[in-house]
User: Fold this.
Amino acid sequence: MSGSNFGKAFQITTYGESHGKAIGVVIQGCPPGIDIDETVLQTALDKRKPGQGVSGTKRKEPDHPNIVSGTFEGKTTGTPLMILIENKDAKSKSYDSIAFVFRPGHGDYTYDAKYGIRDYKGGGRASARETAARVAAGAVAQLILDQNRITIESHTLEIGGICAEKGIKESIQNDLECPDNAAAKRMQEKILAVKALGDSLGGIVEITASNVPAGLGEPVFDKLDADIAKALMSIGAVKAVEIGAGIDAPKMTGYENNDQILTNGFETNHSGGILAGISNGDDIIARVHVKPIPSISKPQNTIDKHGTAQTISTEGRHDICAIPRINKVCEAMMAIVLTDHLLRQKMVR
Amino acid sequence: MSGSNFGKAFQITTYGESHGKAIGVVIQGCPPGIDIDETVLQTALDKRKPGQGVSGTKRKEPDHPNIVSGTFEGKTTGTPLMILIENKDAKSKSYDSIAFVFRPGHGDYTYDAKYGIRDYKGGGRASARETAARVAAGAVAQLILDQNRITIESHTLEIGGICAEKGIKESIQNDLECPDNAAAKRMQEKILAVKALGDSLGGIVEITASNVPAGLGEPVFDKLDADIAKALMSIGAVKAVEIGAGIDAPKMTGYENNDQILTNGFETNHSGGILAGISNGDDIIARVHVKPIPSISKPQNTIDKHGTAQTISTEGRHDICAIPRINKVCEAMMAIVLTDHLLRQKMVR
Amino acid sequence: MSGSNFGKAFQITTYGESHGKAIGVVIQGCPPGIDIDETVLQTALDKRKPGQGVSGTKRKEPDHPNIVSGTFEGKTTGTPLMILIENKDAKSKSYDSIAFVFRPGHGDYTYDAKYGIRDYKGGGRASARETAARVAAGAVAQLILDQNRITIESHTLEIGGICAEKGIKESIQNDLECPDNAAAKRMQEKILAVKALGDSLGGIVEITASNVPAGLGEPVFDKLDADIAKALMSIGAVKAVEIGAGIDAPKMTGYENNDQILTNGFETNHSGGILAGISNGDDIIARVHVKPIPSISKPQNTIDKHGTAQTISTEGRHDICAIPRINKVCEAMMAIVLTDHLLRQKMVR
Amino acid sequence: MSGSNFGKAFQITTYGESHGKAIGVVIQGCPPGIDIDETVLQTALDKRKPGQGVSGTKRKEPDHPNIVSGTFEGKTTGTPLMILIENKDAKSKSYDSIAFVFRPGHGDYTYDAKYGIRDYKGGGRASARETAARVAAGAVAQLILDQNRITIESHTLEIGGICAEKGIKESIQNDLECPDNAAAKRMQEKILAVKALGDSLGGIVEITASNVPAGLGEPVFDKLDADIAKALMSIGAVKAVEIGAGIDAPKMTGYENNDQILTNGFETNHSGGILAGISNGDDIIARVHVKPIPSISKPQNTIDKHGTAQTISTEGRHDICAIPRINKVCEAMMAIVLTDHLLRQKMVR
Assistant:
């Protein structure tokens, strides 16, 4: 069925496996007349690129976005945009050992249970590589948001249990996109320590969208926060999504949590910019809780396709932590949701 | 647009406002030949009924479900099931004062911003009353899950900052659906204390689905966890959704968080029964963080439609805490998501 | 699945069986602020009402539309409009004889094959009564078209092989909505003659939408003509749909069929106002070919549920010809398609 | 919006322009484990290839289908199949003259009206070249139909007003897929004569699907005939769609048109294998009326983008008649609709 579609007005359809010929996306609903070229997509993809910084793998994935359709003389035409990214650095041999052994924390077992067949190379369709297509689509969405001066950014709040201090918003001087440079240093040290042990880490990322007009979101199911929750939870490693005060909201009383309204705006933003599923004009704030990368070299117990016990040690080239690469995917999904609802609102008023 | 639809194979479409003539739901995709009558719906709605226990309002909403279409001689026919619940206890007068004043924490401001017009009586479409339609639909979904012996239950883990002790699973002897009876007592005391102050509380609810077959969920966007996140976040007061280890996942290393696989199954269930967006056969576990009820009698600052500063004290008949009524809504949404994916999987294998 | 939905931006969802409690429709995507009351719906439903004229049945279906949700103080609010029409004149007893015998030309056999269970009373979900919900939805759509000065009308071109003369557009002085009054008289005579024989008739209806702006329709599948074809073919008795020159187009050469373009517009309208699936500003013209009513008192061969040969003579209260009642259904479906695409175009430019 | 999607369970999404880099399709919902390779797609595309026979253009479009994703070791995996067909023989220069002049009978004017920008080369997105993607998708659908022994074939019934004699079903000895070889000869002569005049022709094609099980189709809008009508009308040159008796149905009485039911099946097949929108087990029969190719060298009146009168003579390499190439597109669309409903029915029973 249509599980690889996302969005109703601005709809993306992704395809592709980690070690297949290519991955990519078809985008429907992009308005005509928008200036676009592969450079803007390349810039977005480069930010997600692996092989950078302390948390990343050494793989090189030269993600070159190829705009195959939907543009004419440098502008979108309103017809489907197809963006294709070839898979070039796929070393398939290194995955042969896991053809029949299920990696803990991965989709190997469940893809087999669902489909009865599975492209095991590099995780196939379940690979994080699929998110490059989302980032490309997000870059297109951002062009539309740009016209409305809507900006999106993300920050790393926590890695491996080490938190950025609340309220610190320094100019970022680290590879982890953390606004607390001192904390970032400790995060980096922890990453190196855990890497040495053949283990991995997770963390928390906050995504903020600014200048979003009031009125976006469609009750009662396509609420803006509901669509953001789905968008972010659909990213592989995400295990929790918060909006605004999120997990702190139940600790407050109604009086404390309500954002009282003054003549110049909301006094606080515990709502995360969304009331009853509709944007209120304040910053949209979401946080994702990212599990540690499941691919680790430390030996683990598992079984193979025949149910026989096995020990597995994932030796491939893997990240130690999905952050900060996942940050760009979160931004992309936020951009796609906001663009979808921005277009939908055009039909309301 | 189609914001009041949810689900693709098992699709519900809700309608209705708090103080309109009725609320209800059209259900498409319910298989034919299932025994159904209004009793099973009534039982489900009674569990969500207000006016019970310490946290609830004194309103009486005699929610009588009326099956208008889609059945014949006590069985579903495969055609759209329409269930209608009349609004009987709607005292509209008590809402006149808020016709032009925006209640903090509610959708008054945002509905106005979106639509330019708003049924202000009882919150209109944004009222929690809408969830009665979800509960009715959930009861229908559960009939299908019953055929597959899939069960769903929910428990209250926290109210007003008071937590049930982890691991305690007592036979429930309280009105709050809390598995820790001693904690429940303290929760009830806190509710009464906060009520006396004209304030309100939130909390945490855990929803567990058992006996779910492996293979449900459709990557890469209609992942089972992504659809659960949307389903639960679309419930009014929910501000965060966790799956499995959720917010604890980033505190663990990969080795700690991965559910190693033994010959008799997964050793742990940090995944919450979902790997790569597909169920793995273990219990599906989700948690929602519920904000305190925004309607409080304690005076708050706000503005009216003309932007003039106002003070508001919500005097209507309101719950102090959405828990445990919201628990039934969470169960219903979980049932709807699982039924949707159970049917979808029939097309795969 | 979602087979009772139609439209993407302006989406209708119908429910109900002929002899159930009620039939009706949920409408999503109706813009807010539109003046609406039950009178405008009643007027539309009255035009479709049976029991009028020579071709109709003697049943009285007092179709009272009840707007259950989606309005406030006489205006739409942007939330789902639910319209319910109670079934009042359902004489179920007269259908008991066909509980197990399949009526030729009806859906009895196929509903059984599909669902394994069937509400046989009055045709259940397959009854033409379902189209009352479409007419109500069409009346809502027309309110939006009115704001854009788009008008829709239909004419009867043929009944029982008797054709209105091409080009004659007289002021209609007959019950059959035929623009050729002399032909209409002959049609009426034929209807009476065939009625006396216990048989029935079909015919051709033309639907014209005027003042439709250029630019509506979404290639390559949701082309305006493709959506019109689906909309009209989804009406029970329709067996063919033409757009513009339709079945005459293959008789012409390209030079004859092409609508040459002059500085003041298209010279002809063989395209029926649609080029490459997008409206061109000319009148949208569609024609439907309607089969004769399958319910006839003349005895026919059939089988029962056990495969045993039976003779059937349908004695119920039935129309002799679906025209002119079906005309109003065609207009409604055209209005729904145009409204859907009018809203969709708002997202393009 | 999502106008380039078709189908709900088996969903295709096409992209691409005539003279862009490539055209293609993403297919969602294809069951896993089906043997597939590019050969089967190539065979289907070759049958649609231009440059063959008397009615075709001399262009060579070497349509090589490239399966980019969704397969593993020669089998489908259940994930999105992406098929890409590069555009190789696109001589863009020959279209420069029509950059600002609207070709009569084409979508030039309407694409401009809709989007305000248009890829004019070779018709861009509106080109019949887009149908190669449909044919590729249809070949995939047919693999699923094959497993159910459902076959689809098409025949040419009329070209340029010359009809195959009704009932003649000879072994085809002509390039036009006409079952009446003598008529085909006259059609070919007419094509040559009209070609010499710089003009073009249309015709009628019948599509028949055999061995379709009873029970496919989803009332009341996704009726099998409604979806077939949309599928076929979405093909560029189609101006009318008939099901079963089609335009002859209104000429018959109910007694004549009803397919009486004998113990060994339906006596006739005026219904075209569909009753009340659901297949009845008989052959599904549809006919399309195809307009003459609008690109003709005979000079025509038109206007340019500035509204100035122009004369146009389309000199490009064009077919004289869309038949028989369009036949393969019709078969493909029929296959896609049937596969979609075959999968949908799995959720019903």
